[in-house]
Amino acid sequence: MYTANELLGMVNHYIDTLPYNRKPESLYAPIRYVLSLGGKRIRPILMLLSYNLFKDNPEQILSSACALETYHNYTLLHDDLMDKAPLRRGKPTVHCQWNENMAILSGDSMLVLAYERMAQCEQQLLPEVLELFTQTALEIGEGQQYDMEFETRNDVTEQEYIEMIRLKTSVLLACAMKMGAILAHAPKEDADLLYKAGEQIGLAFQLQDDYLDVYGDSKVFGKKIGGDIVSNKKTYMLINALHLADEEQRLQLNKWLSKTNDDNRKIRAITRLYNKLEIDKLAKAKIDYYFDLSKDYLNAVYLPEKQKMQLRNYLDRMLKRKR
């Protein structure tokens, strides 16, 4: 069984040595740039670990695993453009390094490249693989649309938010795990269980992101703490604060949400309100809830425990992350 670190090395080497033999170079340079920025490579690692539950040669599906990473980075490229974000992983975003038109076109090409790389899988499995990939891609777009619509609403419910992050974030982790099982010719029941496990770990992962944006260590988290507060982003934290606040607290919350200057005071004030409402405890309990559900689904996969050890260790690391 391969460890997650060994698989990360495989993925990074594969991505670093991908050939781009087409022209014009100006179209492919931003793609190479985006993929060179690194990252945790969670999605390909989850696919390879899931495949490795059933087969010992995960290097055989590196093309499909890196297709998911290409697709994921395509979504980030377009997210950055929509958000007008200046940085990604500490480096200039594509629309800043080049321009908006090139970001759109290179992003579109990344999507096509993701499908091209995915199509290199075992041909008898291609219809099932592409059906799952396409369904996932559509759901992610739906999640992004909900996220944008939530920006202008103050009545977003927790249930709506959970469904949005399921679509925007969770389904790609679920797809990665199920696809690994499919490519390993695993029983359908086990592939479906791994999808469910990925879905739950994805929910826990995004809620943890919300939590760390408020309570993380900026030196470890890799970005300024309180960014979601400054931008009034509808997160699990804010949605529950709006729901649980009494009249006076809601007035205070809305006052600070309307502020567009003095970011540091705004972050401190809203964090104090979160603390009074014990939003931190609520978020941690919800993270643990979804993580426990993911473990239940993994437990149900019909394999000896020792074969699940590397995947289980990786999921544990995801929960304990600080960034």
Automatic annotation (TrEMBL):
Cofactor(s) this protein cannot do without: Mg(2+)
Family the UniProt entry places it in: Belongs to the FPP/GGPP synthase family.
Record organism: Prevotella micans F0438
GO molecular function: metal ion binding; prenyltransferase activity
Pfam families in the cross-refs: polyprenyl_synt (PF00348)
The keyword Ion transport is assigned to this record: no
Record-linked SUPFAM superfamilies: Terpenoid synthases
GO biological process: one example: isoprenoid biosynthetic process
Keywords: Magnesium, Metal-binding, Transferase
Entry superkingdom: Bacteria
The protein, known as: Polyprenyl synthetase
Transmembrane segments: none
Origin organism lineage: Bacteria, Pseudomonadati, Bacteroidota, Bacteroidia, Bacteroidales
